Each structure stands twice: as structure tokens, then as C-alpha cells.
Amino acid sequence: MKILIVGCGRVGSRLAQRLERGGSEVVVIDENRETFASLGGDFRGATFHGSGLDAPTLKRAGAGSCDALVAVTGGDNRNLMIVQMAKEQFATPRALARLKDPIRAAKYRELGVETLCVTTVVEGLVELWAQNGEFPELPGEMSASGDASALND
Amino acid sequence: MAYAIIIGGGKIGYYLSRSLINRNYEVCLMEKDHVNARRLSADLGDVVMQGDGCDPLVLKSAGIERADLLFAATGDDPDNLVICQMARLCFNRQRILARVNNPDNEALFEKLGVHERLSGTAAVLNMIGQKVDKSPVILLGALEKSSLEVVEIIVEDDSPLCGAKLSEMKLPPQSLVISVLREGEAQIPKGETVFESGDVLLILVPAALESTLREFLV
Question: Which chain A residue shows the shortest CA-CA distance from B54?
Fold first, then answer.
């Protein structure tokens, strides 16, 4: 599975490491070269310096040949434009936009754009926590209480 | 009275709002940034509203349901795209226009259903003049019949225009520099006006001579 991650911030870099550990081929794009340091020394995937809104950069990074693209830049609107660009211009099979705004997330889902709204996810988890006194069982190494193991590397 | 909602209080949004107000439009100019919004409302008054044009509740309180026109005029293409798509998804308005800052994005906007796109102040005024029937806009409408065109030229550092005085410029016959946009101000140029790098000139020119003008100036 080849996965293209646009945005190498806190979410993008951790996601890249996790997916690579899980056996995926990972490619990361970011406008700021310095963010690639957060991928760590043992990251084997490719990195591309450039804007995810720039079609030639997306193309070079393999938007036309990857199995999935995940847009996790800091801006909701950027993420929405990136995934639509990937779908329309490169026929990327799956493209997911990470959003903060639940309204946009719901409306774009109506359009057939895959969105994941962090606000909604947190709301849901906190509601379960309030009802049950604990977080629900999550698969694998996911944990709603966080992971500080990176500090030990 | 036609009602236009303009989103984004940059140069384009500001001048467009001012022009439309002068043409008796009812205008709402929406600006996300609080500081900018206050600065704009000191100048334009109640037409300025602080808010995020991507938020359907904000658009609703701006009266989008009775608006004749929504123009996403920010300097950011992702913002303009999402403003237009959200307005279409939530309110199904007919006249939704987007400013496209990067011409490479034109094709994507078209594919994604944003069919009315503009770049450049002159084009904006022209399009609105042609398409909103209720408007009392005559200025550019009349130009169509006389085969005159308004062209926009940006003065670059290496342009022959940079440092040139208007009275000494050899323009094609019947052409006229009607306005200079400089540092956020629209000015009517005089003979002694000297053009600077970064100036945006609006030039009225017979359609047949447009290519001559471009060769001469660029």
C-alpha cells in the first residue's frame, strides 16, 4: 500500500511513522523542509519539498500512482482543495481530508469527499468517557490517552 | 436594489465594494480578520461584517438567502473554492463567483462546479456589469457596443512603463489610462503621473488595437 501524506506537522509526521511501521510505502509532502526532521532518522519513505496545492508537486510525489492520499495540513480549506485536486486531476483512488470544522466535514461528505473531523472524534470520545468512566477499546497501539514513547527514542 | 455579498476585504474586495456602493448596490463586505474588519468599517461603515465566509451560519446572518450575488474575493484560492462550494451546498445560490489567484487553478475550479471565475479588477467590474440585469451599471456595459476593451497591466520592474511619465507615453490612438491602483489606492492619472513598479493600470483601448498596446507596453 502506497500512501501520500500532505503536511508534515504533528499529525502528518506521526502518521507517516506509524504507517511505515505498519508496512506501507509512505511519501510525505511539506512546504517547509525543516519539518521532515520530525520523521526521525529511521524513516525510509520519500519526502517532497513543495506545496500540496501545486499540481506538479503532487504529481512528482506520486498522486497518480499511490493507493491513498491523506491531507493533514493545518488548514481545513487547504486540505479540502488538496483532496479534490488529487481526485480530479490524478484520479487518486482514496483521498481523506483531516478537518477541524464539523460543518464542513459533514457538507463535503454529502459531496462524496472523504473527511475526518477531529472535533467530532474528540467530542465522541469524551462523551463515552463521561458516560462510562473510561475510553473505549481502540485497535492496536491507538490509545485515547496519548503516547509519549517518542520521548524515549 | 441588488444585494451583493463580497467575501475578503483585501484590495479587490475593498475596491469592488466601494464601486458597487457607488452604483447603488446594497453590499456586505465580509472580512475574517478583526483588525482588518475594524479598519474597513472605519472607511465603509455598516456594510463591513466581521466573520468567516466558510461558515454557513455567518453567511445566513449576512442574508445570503436574499443576495443576488456572492463573490469569494480573498487572496487565497483554497478559501475561495471552499466558500463557493459551501454556499452552493448550503444555499444553492445561482450567482456565486470566485476570484482565482493562481491561473493554474482555473481548470480545477471549473471541474468542481465553480463556473464563474474572475481575476483582476477590470474583469470583475465588467462581468458584474453584464450579468446583473437589475443593476444600474452602465459604465462598462456601454463599452461592449463601442468595441472598446478595458485591459489591466501590471507594471513590472523591467517594464518600459516603470519610471515613465504618462504625458510622454506613446499609447495607440484612442486609448486612455483610466485608473492606476497603487498601494491600495485607486488614482486617476494625470499627465505628470510617473508609473512605478507594482502599479496596476486600467487602460481603455479599442479592441482592434489591444495587441498593439500589449506589444508596446510589455
Answer: A104
Tell if the CB–CB gap between A101 and B90 is shorter than 8 Å.
no
Domains of chain B: 3-139 (3.40.50.720), 146-217 (3.30.70.1450)
- Residue A139, domain member (yes or no): no
Tell me the CB-side half-sphere exposure of residue B182, using CA atoms within 13 A: 14
In this prediction, residues B143-156 reach a mean pLDDT of 64
A140 domain-assigned: no
A134 lies in some domain: no
The whole domain housing A109 covers: 2-119
Q: Which bin fits B16, alpha (ψ -120 to 50), beta or left (φ > 0)?
A: alpha
The CA distances from residue A86 to A13, A67, A73, in Å, are: 20, 11, 15
Which residues partner with A59 through β-bridges?
Answer: none
Q: How many domains does chain A have?
A: 1
Residue B30 in contact with residue B62, Cβ under 8 Å? yes
- B218 pLDDT band (50/70/90 cuts)? low
C-alpha cell at B197: 513598479
Q: What's the predicted TM-score (pTM) here?
A: 0.72
Task: Give the CATH number, domain containing residue A71.
Answer: 3.40.50.720
A143 is a domain residue: no
Q: Do A55 and B104 touch (CB under 8 A)?
A: yes
Q: What is the largest CA-CA distance in chain A?
A: 49
- For residues B97 and B5, give the distance between their C-alpha atoms in angstroms, rounded to a whole number: 10
Mean pLDDT of B144-172: 74
Q: How far is A7 from chain B (nearest CA, A)?
A: 15
At A40-86, the pLDDT tens digits run 999 999 999 999 999 999 999 999 999 999 999 999 999 999 999 99
CA–CA separation, A16 vs A25, rounded Å? 9
Cross-chain residue pair A111–B55, CB shorter than 8 Å? no
B127 pLDDT above the threshold of 60: no
